[in-house]
Amino acid sequence: MKNLFLAATVLVLAACAKTPDVDYDKTVDFTNYKTFAWLPEATLAGTGNYQISELTEKRVQDAVTEKLQQQGMTLVPAAEADVLINYHASVDTKMDVETFNTGYGAHWNNWGMGYNTQTTTREYEVGTLVLDVVDQNTNQLVWRGAREGRLLKNQSPEARNERINEVVTTILSGFPPETVK
User: Fold this and answer.
1) 41-73 burial, b if ≥16 CB within 10 A, otherwise e?
2) Other C-beta atoms within 10 Å of 146: how many?
3) Which entry of 13, 37, 165, 171 is 20 to 30 Å from 130 by CA?
């Protein structure tokens, strides 16, 4: 029973990791949005992390454009768009700390108990991609989606494309939001 509970907990946590963080203005009628354009200042560069480059920016823009077009929206010049798309990314360094305690008992006629504690630490980078949808007429943010994930080094360009497409698809799975009337 304990193992079943542990397995269920792991599955729930894994599902949560794939769920994007989405927020939006509930007063907005998203069915009115048919066209989009990129905010002219939209950029990921300048974060100081080698994994966020002009190549990454192009991959993000291509993935978002493709996904929005699959959802029926049309890419148009900024002056004609219903909404403007903005994006940004951050990279944080996190640390994983694991401590293992091992014990051994007395043997023969010796009394007492000995313990050995071993602590290991690993540093890793976590990236967060945020996509914003801004209403062109009001210049107000109406929708935001984000996803965080561990950054992997030494990936091929194909693997980077695949990972970015997966992240963008996950984030945009909440756009447009389902409105309850």
Assistant:
1) ebbbeebebebbeeebbebbbebbbebbeeeeb
2) 19
3) 13
- Look at residue 135 and give its three-state secondary structure: strand
* CATH architecture designation of domain 21-172: 2-Layer Sandwich (3.30)
pLDDT tens per residue, range 8-60: 333 333 334 467 889 999 999 999 999 999 987 765 554 454 556 788 888 99
Q: Going edge to edge, which strands form the sheet with 113-135?
A: 21-24, 140-150, 113-135, 83-105, 35-38, 74-75
Look up residue 13 and give its two tokens. Answer: 């946590």
Burial of 7 (0-12, 13-18, 19+ CB in 10 A): exposed
Domain boundary assignment for the chain: 21-172
For residues 20 and 151, the model is more confident at: 20
Of 155, 126, 131, 133, nearest to 57 by C-alpha is: 131
Q: Which residue reads 């023969």 in tokens?
A: 108
Are 52 and 91 in contact by the 8 Å Cβ rule? The answer is yes
Both structure tokens of 79: 């002056």
